[in-house]
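Kindly inspect what follows.
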Amino acid sequence: MKPEHWILAACLLAGCARTASPPQPPDLKLGEMNCSRCGMSIDDGRFAAARQVGGVLRLYDDAGEMFLERKQSPAADEYLWVRDYNDQKWLDGRTCRYLRGSKIRSPMGFQVAATADELAAAPLAARWGCQVLDLETLQNQWNSQEEKQP
């Protein structure tokens, strides 16, 4: 085979190679799975969260536990998912909106909920009298707090 044929074959093979798809959120079974941090059963899907770092998936019964672990073990190669407070569907934890306030009754008392966007967050923020935050702002608040669990 001529060298130019080898180059063409290599290019064709490279083009057909599959690219790895990003990880998908876990198939959460409420009442059957436990929080990776505290060990409690994940029973309330409105507050569940998940974090994957380096192929290791960790589940949380309260998104606040995920934020504590991010503070303790930051990672650039992570995937984050949180459940939507309104419909309990998985959201991309990097792009959704978070609500944080004392009237939010999450399983471990971290007082955080998530929604798909600002529009979905607005009625909850009005009802609870709380802030609507993006991931970076919420994590920065978390990182500046003392290390304690509610």
In short: The radius of gyration is 20 Å. The first helix runs from residue 3 to 16. Residues 29-144 form a domain with the Beta-Lactamase fold (CATH 3.30.450.410).
